[in-house]
Specification:
Blueprint: E1 8-14, H1 21-30, E2 37-43, H2 50-56, E3 60-63, H3 70-84, E4 88-91, H4 101-110, E5 122-126, H5 139-156, E6 168-171, H6 172-178, H7 191-199, E7 204-208, H8 225-246
Helix pairs in contact: 3-6, 5-7, 5-8, 7-8
Length: about 260
């Protein structure tokens, strides 16, 4: 399999985003990193023209025959990045909520070494680094954020202000780990994965991010889904802690 000549891969999971993804791709290609990046869209069995819009913009697309879900799409992106030799990966949403200006900031942070010469393994783009600001959030989601923050701080000792952000940058070390068998939650990858990576010794940093409210389409966290998600993620974070710290279960070991 051929190796890339570029060092950055931007991956975008998409489901029925024909009205949103075009402008996102245009802005990415026009960004200062446009010549350094490849763009891969994971089209999760969309029923609209998402695939055609991506192709019309000259970007790579992987289309699932069946709807596999957000996490599976991400892991396909990780596997692609690993097999093609990218140094960095940035994941963002297809709906325009993640401003493209964040890509350059995350890339710079991934390359920023500390006093010991170590660069971050994961960079999180946070809506709430400097407080709640004016980003509209439902009461259920606010409660979920508080719970997730508290658990991460309690289990890892690290403060994470936006534990559910889908805007993330990963080093090759991090996305290669995620690409491995049973290393990544392919259903609900979120605060549980952040907890796992901190406990495993990966360096996780946060930077402020510019985000917008969705204007078209339906969020995957609509209706009663946020309540169900809150309980599932809470149990998942606890399970990660028990696995990594109390029982030391090797995620590579199959049942």
């Amino acid at each position: 399999m051929s190796k890339t000549t570029k060092e950055l891969l931007v991956i975008i999971p998409a489901y029925n985003e024909e009205k949103n993804i075009g402008p996102v791709l245009d802005q990415l290609k026009a960004s200062p990193l446009g010549d350094k990046m490849d763009i891969l869209v994971m089209n999760d069995a969309s029923k609209d023209a998402t695939k055609q819009v991506v192709l019309d913009h000259g970007c790579m697309v992987v289309t699932h025959i069946y709807n596999l879900g957000y996490g599976s799409g991400l892991q396909i992106g990780y596997k692609y990045a690993q097999s093609h030799g990218y140094r960095y990966l940035i994941q963002m949403d297809a709906d325009g909520q993640h401003d493209v200006c964040n890509v350059e900031k995350i890339y710079e942070e991934l390359n920023r070494a500390d006093e010991q010469g170590n660069c971050p393994d994961i960079v999180l783009g946070s809506r709430f680094t400097h407080g709640w600001k004016d980003y509209p959030t439902s009461t259920v989601k606010k409660i979920a954020y508080i719970i997730f923050r508290t658990l991460i701080k309690m289990f890892t000792g690290k403060k994470i202000t936006d534990p559910t952000t889908g805007l993330q940058g990963l080093s090759a070390r991090a996305f290669s780990f995620y690409a491995g068998y049973n290393h990544f939650d392919d259903k609900y990858p979120d605060a549980n994965m952040i907890t796992q990576m901190i406990l495993l010794g990966y360096r996780v940093e946060e930077i402020p991010a510019v985000m917008h409210v969705r204007t078209e389409g339906i969020s995957m966290h609509s209706g009663l889904k946020p309540i169900i998600y809150m309980f599932r993620m809470t149990f998942s974070i606890v399970a990660v802690f028990l696995r990594e710290k109390l029982y030391h279960v090797d995620p590579e070991v199959k049942d």
